[in-house]
Amino acid sequence: MLYRPDKRILTDEFINTFLITAAEEVEFFRSDQPDYSAFEKQRSSWNNTLSGLGESLLREYDSAVHRAFIDYQELLENYFIVKGLTEGLGGQIKPPPEGETAAIPGLEEAERRLLLACRQFVGRLDEKAGAQCVEYLQVRKQIVDTGGALCQRCGAELAEALLKKSGLLSS
């Protein structure tokens, strides 16, 4: 019996949920790392400052800066999770070379939008809050950027586990 060959089995929603789940596992792993605790302290300090800036700036931060970070991070993480998964399935796992992010489709534009949103937001702040914001945003971007290797590792570990589960790779 033929099932509708033109209808996809896996929906975009399933794929998105899968990638989000993998990224959440990376985030959970990353949160246990020593450099992450310093980032969390800085984030907490910035959030305290941000909450005192007023409702309109808080909404602007959420809608522009935070949204731009999410878009940038999602592109980067999805690329490296899938790269690790495909390399792992092919048995060709290798760490990402420096500067590989230039090859990620759409990342350069997402980074441009992120930097513009950050610059515009910081421009609305007084000197002290602006300096704190810039420092926090730089650290946040660095955390996101260095997460690529962890996402690739996550994808590779998933590939290895799938291969072992199927019996195609011995333990």
Account of the protein in words:
The protein is mostly helical and 171 residues long. 75% of the residues lie in helices and 0% in strands.
Number of helices: 5
Gross morphology is: elongated
Query: SSE order, as H and E?
Result: HHHHH
Average predicted confidence as pLDDT = 91
How many strands appear in the DSSP assignment? 0
Structural class: mainly alpha
From the structure above, extract its key features.
mainly alpha, 5 helices, 171 residues
Summarize the structure.
With 171 residues, this protein is mostly helical.
List the helices and strands and how they pair.
Layout: H1 12-30, H2 34-51, H3 55-89, H4 107-122, H5 127-166
Helix pairs in contact: 1-3, 1-5, 2-5, 3-4, 3-5
